[in-house]
Amino acid sequence: MSSSDAWQPYRESVARQAIFLRNPLPPGPGVCFVCRSAAKDGYDVCYPCRTHRDASHLTSDAVVPIAYALKGAQHAHHLATYKFEPPSYSARAALQALSILFLGLHRPCFEQAAGGRLTHAAVVPSTRGRRGVHPLQALLMPSISLPFVSARPGAEYAKDDRTFRGDRFTAPVLPNARVLLLDDTWTTGARAQSLSHTLKSAGARCVITVVLGRHVNGRHDGSKALVEQAKSTAFDIGRCSLDS
Ligand SMILES: [Zn+2]
Ligand SMILES: [Zn+2]
Q1: 35-83 tens-digit pLDDT
Q2: For residue 193, how far is its CA from the centre of ligand 2 (angstroms)?
Q3: Which SUPFAM superfamilies match (predicted)?
Q4: Residue 190 Cα, ligand 2 centroid: separation in angstroms?
Q5: 3-17+53-219 topology per CATH
């Protein structure tokens, strides 16, 4: 069976989801260069991304949101309920189809941005005291032909701490690794960027971060125009933020 045949059920699932999925907008006036959320006039990045930008922060080389997770909409609902206990199995199936198809189609884009073949995958660990394999890793591990880095929580911070913290996580040594870092929802990005810093401090030469949903609250005045523009175009899984 060719890979395109193997992907057919995923394509069908994504076609059904397309009604509520929205591609991230290209960077430019009003759109953050890093995470594709709303940026204020005169800034190329949003406020949280601005706080991550510091010469001492080893942030991701590229951030690739698969879609916006619009607050209150179906994709955001999937991203919450797939990790409930017990989980929503329909949410799991939808997210698995979306992410496996996206990761398969765009792997050449990630490798071009990384300057070579990816060597490892990692997920941002939970801080809610969940034990065992992270639900996102469980969903994707069978389909990603990369060893997963066992990143773990490091120094303790409040659960709702949304600040870049270079010591929030720990990771084993990773000399010259090119890491595909996966996260479900990017809200401020502080946790993913903190883990990127840890991975690079451990020796990784490159980190490409793929997030299933970039959280956006369309009720915020600053995000209304972005949401309206994102909704004006039909979702296309063939597009990624590395080619726009
Ligand atoms: Zn941003
Ligand atoms: Zn691409």
Answers
A1: 999 999 999 999 999 999 999 999 999 999 999 999 999 999 999 999 9
A2: 21
A3: PRTase-like (SSF53271)
A4: 24
A5: Rossmann fold (3.40.50)
